[in-house]
UniProtKB/TrEMBL annotation:
Residue ranges occupied by any PhoD-like phosphatase domain in the UniProt entry: 1-368
Name by which UniProt lists this protein: PhoD-like phosphatase domain-containing protein
Pfam families associated with the record: PhoD_2
Top-rank taxon: Eukaryota
InterPro entries, sorted: PhoD_2-like
Signal peptide stretch: none
Cellular component, GO, one term: membrane
Amino acid sequence: MFKNIGRIGIEMYLLFQHHTTLEILRNVSNDQDLFTITGTGWHFVKYLGPAVVVVGPDCRSERNPHQVMAGPTYQGLFPKVAMLPPSVQHCIWMITVPIIYPRMEAAESLANTIATGKKAVTGTYNVIGKVAGSVAGVVGAKTVVGEGFNSVKKAVGKTGLMGGILSPFGEIDMLDELRDQWTHESKDLERTYLIRTLQGIAHQRSIRMTFLSGDVGCCGAGLVHDPSHPSDHKTMYQIISSAIVNGPPPSYLLKMLHNNKALYVPQNGQRSTNSVSDTKEDMMEIFLTDVTGTAREMKKLMGRRNYVAFVAFDPDLANQQYQQGQQPQPEHTSKLSLAVDFIVQGDGAYSAPVKYGPVIIPRLEYGQ
């Protein structure tokens, strides 16, 4: 059943998001649109002008509890990025969930506790129900007792006390969400491999790497960087923008995410221990005020519907022409930075959206 659900999901994804089908793709001899590397998963590399490229790896088709993408997929994607034309200055990786994101150990601990409690409650009532049912069978009330215990189990299950926590399959929804994150321990080595490899390509090609992700119900920005060498090739930005149709996560979850735990990326092949390394992770404090203008305590993530806007610009040209009162006109030889604005839904059905930012993603200078 689940294989069929996955197959239909891929077909609908290709049809409605890429306006194509598997039959069409398999009869195309070039990779200018979508391409596959392993036969499972469809990826793309798109140009937004000569200086900006968007890479869209398929992070769903090969996903399992222990990986996001298979090794051969990375070995096919990385050379395509390493061989981009010399004009490319920025490479934006569209990846479903954030690579750079606060850790959620407290949330996972809570979810595991709930999962253990659910199993204990369900198991206890199963045992008691069987005993009571067998006794009740003597007096002819077995059906009534059985229905009563089923009602109690439902009361603490997906339709009762745990209604906001359990998935439709009765599992802990939060645990499933946590396992889906790049920052989960099950994806730790793969995440480090991706970050460190892209740092190497960035250094060789002087291309600034940026991640654009969502699917977490909030917006924000983070980065990995070397504090002793600001803006060098190890600096990669993470832009997070939630889907407009999704509601925000609970406030207690956002509060858990606003922690000040120091995080570092280990060397390739090593598990994260958060020992000090040459690559530190940080979230940026962008949301100093709420959409109503009141001061915010949680400044790193905003739990409101939103979208982001990217604008490429030449900082030197912009400053020069701003002083002269002219409209900046980028040239082919411009050294481009990216400005990212967050457009956040206002408070109320008829309130105007509020802009936050910009987050400036600088061009990577040659040799840095």
